[in-house]
Structures are given as C-alpha cells and as structure tokens.
Specification:
Strand order of the largest sheet: 1-8-7-6-5-4-3-2
Number of strands: 20
Shape: elongated
Largest sheet: 8 strands, parallel
Distance between the termini: 80 Å
Helix content: 40-55%
Strand content: 5-15%
Radius of gyration: 26 Å
C-alpha cells in the first residue's frame, strides 16, 4: 500500500531540489503581480465578486482579494510567469496581513486570503511538470512603521507595536504554510523593525509546529541616499536580520536596476547566504508608469550575472513576463554567485553597521545614559526632560561612543515605560541612532520591552546563571529569536565570581551552555568577568583588578569568537568624588585590560585619559 506523503514531507522534497538548484544556476523569480492585475482593468464589481457584494467600503485595489473572487485571473498570471521561465512564483498575498487588510475592513479574512492564495499558487505550480517549480509565500511590509512616527510633531508616537506585527505575520505565515508554500518571503522591507517582528512571529509559529520552512528576506533601498525608509544602510539592514538564518537575502522595489546596482554589489560582498534582486522596471515617470524596457533591464542585469553577484533574480513594479524572458536569457549560462566565507564577527547595527572582530580597536560603550550610573541622567528622566536626556546620548556618540548603554532601573521610575519612550525618541535622532544600543537592565521585562523598540541589532546587558540553567537557557533562546547579542555576567548559583579561577569557570560554563544547548552564535556572546572595586581597605579585594585582567586574558584565548566586556568605572568606586584619581585608575586599568584582550567597556566616552 502506497502511503500518501504529508504536505511537510512533500515540501522537504521540493526544498531539497531547490537547494540543489541554487548551486547549479541563477534561479528566476517572477514579475510584478500588481502590474499584471492592473492590465486587466478590473472594476469594483470584479473585486467584490458575489461573496462580497454587500461589503461596506470600497474594495477596488485590494488585489489580494482576487485570490478568492477572481482566482482564474491570479492563476493566469502565475502561468504567464512560469511560461516566461519563473522557477519561483510568489503568492498574491503582499497585503494579506490583518494589519494591511484593516484598510478594507477585512482583517478577519487574513488567514483565508493567505491560505487560498497559497493553495492556488501550489496547484498552478504543480501542474507544470517539466521542471521543478516553487512557491514563495509573499509577506509585505504592511502599511505601518514600528520604528517611525507617522506624526512629525510627535516623534515618540507609534501606531503599531512589535507584538501586533509579530502576531499578524504569524497568522499570515500559518495560512501560507497550510496552503502549501515552500518558502516564506518577507519582502519590500522599508522598516527593519517590522521585519524583525515578522521574523519573531514566523519563527515562533514554525517552532511551535515543528516545521522547517525557509525564510527569504528582501529589503528596499528607498532613494539615492542608499538607505531604507527607516534610515539603515545595506550592511546595517543585513546585520539586523541575519539571525533569521534566511535561505536568501536581497533587495527589491523602489529603485530601477541601474539605481539598485551598487547596493546589490555590496550585499553580494557581505552576505554569507544566497543573494536575490528584483528591481523595478526603472523609476516611475510623472504618470506613475515604468519605462524601462525588457531589453534595458536585461542588459543591466546581465552585467550583475557576469560579475557574480546573483543567486536569485526577478522583477518588481512595472515588470512583466516579457521582462522575465529577457532577464532569463541575460543570466543564462552565467554561474550563480559563489557564497563567500565571511569572518565571524560581532555584527551589531544602528542605522549603520558596527562590526567587531579580533582586529578591531577597543569599543567604547557610552555609560552616561544610565540612571544607576549618572545622577544627571536619572534626574532628567525622573523629571521627564527627555529632550535634554537625548543631548546626553548625543554627547556620548560625539565623544566617541560606538555603542550607547541605556539603563532605566530606578525604583521610582516606571522602567519599561521610560525605556520604551527613550528608545522611541532615540530612533528619531539619526546622529544618535546611527550607533547600536546596549539595553541594560536587571529586569527581563525591561529588556524585552527595549528589544521591541530597536530596528538594529542590539546588545542585551545582561543575563547570568544566577537563577540556574533553566532560566538562563529560556532567556538565551528568546534573545536568539530577537536577534540580539548578549552580555553574560560571571554570576552563578553560588554568587558573583571574584577570583580569576571562578570568573573563568563561570564564563566557560555559560559559553558551553549557550553554544551547545541553545545554539547561540559564539561571536554574539560577550562575557563580563565582573569589574570590582579596588582599594576598599579589605585585603581580599586587593587583587580584584588583576583577577579581572587575567580572566579576560584566558577567556580571550580559550573561548573561540567570544568577546569580553566590563563596567570600567566600578574599579575606582572607592574614590568616588575624586574624578582625577578615578580617571587615572581607569586609564591604567584599561591599558592593561585591553592588552589582555578586553573587547569593550562601559565608559564615559568624554572622560577617557590617555595612558602609555
């Protein structure tokens, strides 16, 4: 008796073929669904069909609804793309999240839209048997921005939350997967925080169901500045989403092939996964029409293929099956891009990348945006003087801080509310938000609240083994899903590690749990062997400074790719009030700690003395 394979087994068989195809040649994506739909000149009645004839509000323009009301048209478009050579067709679901469908009062239809579009694409693809065809579930960016305010007069305002986005994307992904897609394509990313929420929601759903459905990610450079709408450059965008372990990363929309060229080239250099590109047919003219002909577009993309930049290519707005045929011919015979080996580094991001490797200079983490370490910052936050508090952050960056540490752990503050408000305001200040953020708290709820407000790859400060391995593992797994790097304090069930031997022991144990049990990238682990105060008058404290330095030296040489950090001002705490002495101690301490391998330290970037 022949047993029918499950959808998941069938998907895994197709994915085996897909991965093999990626190694053999440049894979062809499809063209613009919206452009093709416009060519039909559909009326309001066409969009409504019989089922939605009495639906309140206008439905014309809700292209995703056509998978239900006009499935024949959507099928014809899929077939036209495959006839032109497409290996991958995208589902007609660019706006099928509940968030986007709310514009049409159709948010309750989100699952069905995704399921029906996926089922339709799957059936259409399966009818083409001469070569494998694959279905990518399209997940557009929604019409909201999680890291930008829609109100220019209120930069701290947001009209969507991370949790709302994650839930909406998870629902859409469920419909797509149950409908039969092979891949999930998070595309046209103009706000990376939206994409990070999508990744969180999708991976949570897939893990809960025990499913392996690869994620494709495609960002959008919106203009000649070379940045996304939310301000990130290409490498910062990639640093922010690479934790998804996507099967491909790429760029699409907004720009034509000539304008997109330099950013595709950059992505091909820095990405250690296959690269996709599907540009518009040029830039729209004053009538919103795209004028780049198939021949013009193909000539440009041929050069990309010759340069070895491409693994997957297709077309976005304004492209048709004719563009696809020309592109297919242009890339034919050119081998796919070879995936480079990228050195393991701690790759953080704000609006710009911050890559930290063995050859990097010492990284200054600005400490003054910390209510527990700065009386002035604490007063500003307590008095809700956030504008001046932003000046403190700005001064830290201007004085050389490559990361800013933000801490709102104060008993008289609503810590979560203060962290969220400050981070939302920081996001509106490019001269501050260009650097990554270190979210610093002893309260897990504040850490999570902070992670949901930053579009870049942040550092969490900190977690530890203090509460035992179970809680440590739980938090680490969540941080991995959020895509954050983590500082681990040398603190376990027995307390804080004081001697060099104990510091190394606790750090080695934490590193082992993270890398072996959690699968945490070792380059994203930052170990803090505890900087304690010297000269306290207690004899057993006399060696604290040396113990830290020697622990750093051993950790740096025995735990591959791990970084080290410390709160430098702690070492001189016995001399508080005597700034010249403290600055001198910090300079000497840092000199020897950096020589021993210290990667970064939390410092006052404006008060670092030079010691030689």
């Amino acid at each position: 008796m022949v047993l029918q394979r499950t959808k998941n087994e069938e998907r895994q068989a197709r994915l085996y073929e897909f991965r093999a195809l990626l190694e053999q040649r440049i894979v062809l994506l499809d063209c613009a669904m919206g452009t093709m739909i416009q060519s039909y000149g559909l009326s309001e009645e066409d969009y409504r069909g019989k089922r939605f004839i009495d639906h309140p509000g206008e439905l014309k323009g809700n292209n995703d609804l056509l998978s239900i009301t006009q499935p024949g048209i959507v099928r014809d478009i899929h077939e036209a793309a495959m006839d032109a050579g497409s290996d991958i067709i995208e589902t007609n679901t660019f706006s099928s999240t509940s968030i986007a469908q709310a514009d049409y009062q159709m948010e309750d239809l989100a699952y069905e839209l995704n399921y029906e579009a996926a089922r339709l694409a799957r059936e259409t693809a399966d009818a083409y048997t001469e070569k494998p065809r694959f279905v990518a579930g399209a997940l557009g960016p929604t019409n909201r921005t999680a890291s930008l305010s829609p109100d220019v007069n209120n930069p701290g305002f947001r009209n969507i939350t991370f949790d709302e986005l994650a839930k909406s994307y998870a629902e859409a992904a469920r419909g797509l997967v149950e409908g039969g897609v092979d891949l999930l394509l998070v595309e046209t990313v103009f706000d990376t925080l939206n994409a990070r929420a999508a990744i969180f929601g999708i991976t949570s759903y897939l893990e809960e169901q025990g499913l392996d459905v690869p994620i494709m990610i495609s960002g959008t450079i919106t203009d000649a500045s070379g940045r996304t709408l939310s301000g990130q450059v290409t490498e910062a965008f990639w640093n922010s989403v690479r934790h998804a372990n996507p099967i491909s990363v790429g760029l699409n929309c907004a720009l034509g092939s000539k304008e997109l060229r330099q950013y595709v080239e950059e992505l091909s250099r820095i990405s250690d996964v296959p690269v996709s590109a599907y540009p518009n047919a040029g830039l729209p003219n004053e009538f919103g029409e795209y004028e780049e002909t198939p021949e013009m577009m193909a000539a440009e993309i041929r050069e990309w293929a010759e340069a070895g930049w491409l693994n997957i290519v297709g077309g976005c707005c304004g492209t048709t099956p004719d563009h696809l045929r020309a592109i297919a011919e242009a890339v034919s015979g050119h081998p796919p891009r070879e995936i480079p080996e990228i050195p393991k580094k701690l790759r953080l991001s704000g609006l710009e990348p911050c890559n930290i490797g063995p050859d990097s200079l010492f990284v200054n983490v600005g400490e003054r945006t910390n209510v527990t370490g700065s009386a002035r910052f604490k007063e500003l936050i307590s008095n809700e003087d956030y504008e001046t508090a932003l000046d403190v952050a700005r001064q830290q960056v201007e004085n050389g801080a490559q990361v800013i540490d933000i801490n709102m752990d104060e008993g008289m503050l609503e810590g979560e509310e203060a962290m969220v408000r400050f981070l939302d305001l920081v996001a509106s200040e490019p001269d501050i938000s260009r650097v990554p953020v270190m979210i610093d708290s002893s309260r897990w709820s504040i850490i999570e609240a902070g992670l949901k407000r930053v579009q870049g790859k942040a550092v969490v400060n900190s977690i530890s083994l203090k509460e035992g391995e179970e809680e440590f593992v739980r938090q680490a797994r969540l941080l991995k899903r959020y895509g954050a790097a983590v500082i681990v304090m040398a603190f376990d069930e027995r307390g804080q590690a004081g001697t060099k031997e104990r510091k190394v022991e606790v750090c080695e144990r934490a590193y082992g749990v993270l890398t072996e049990e959690v699968g945490f990238p070792p380059e994203d682990i930052i170990l803090d062997p505890n900087v304690f105060a010297i000269a306290t008058g207690i004899g057993e404290h006399d060696n604290y400074g040396v113990d830290f330095i020697e622990a750093v030296r051993e950790i740096s040489t025995t735990l591959p790719h791990a970084k080290t950090s410390g709160g430098i001002s702690n070492v001189s705490f016995s001399f508080r009030g005597n700034d010249p002495v403290r600055e001198a101690i910090h300079a000497v301490f840092l000199y020897h700690a950096i020589k021993a391998g210290l990667t970064m330290g939390i410092v006052n970037a404006g008060q670092l003395a030079v010691y030689d």
